[in-house]
Amino acid sequence: MHYNVQFFTWTPRDGVHQVGKMVEVDAVNAKLAATSLLGLRLGESGEASRLAARVWAAEDAAKADCVCFFYQ
């Protein structure tokens, strides 16, 4: 399946900022789409690092059905 991935970073002072451009990836599922780009472990709690990825199917132009992963 074809996915779009956006990376974000955040700090308490500056808030959320997109890192780079959206990347298009072919992967079996959303989590593999996010890990295949950086090769880092993912979590779903947002507790570990300040880097996150938002992933959605390329066919979903409204980005309504997206999932977020947090890098550990």
Task: Provide a concise account of the structure shown.
The protein has 72 residues and is mainly beta. Helix content is 12%, strand content 50%.
Describe the overall structure.
The protein is mainly β and 72 residues long. The chain contains 1 helix and 5 strands; from the N terminus they run E-E-H-E-E-E. Strands 2-1-4-5-3 form a 5-stranded antiparallel β-sheet, with helices on one face. Strand 1 (2-11) and strand 2 form a beta hairpin. The termini are far apart.
Question: Helices and strands in order, then pairings?
Answer:
Elements: E1 2-11, E2 15-26, H1 30-38, E3 42-43, E4 51-57, E5 67-71
Antiparallel strand pairs: 1-2, 1-4, 3-5, 4-5
What string gives the helices and strands in order? EEHEEE
What is the total tally of β strands? 5
- First-to-last CA distance: 25 Å
Beta-strand percentage range: over 45%
Radius of gyration equals 12 Å
Multimerization state? single chain
Major sheet details: 5 strands, antiparallel
Shape: globular
Q: Based on helices, strands and strand pairing, what is the structural class?
A: mainly beta
Biggest sheet: strand arrangement: 2-1-4-5-3
Which keywords apply here?
72 residues; mainly beta; 1 helix; 5 strands; globular
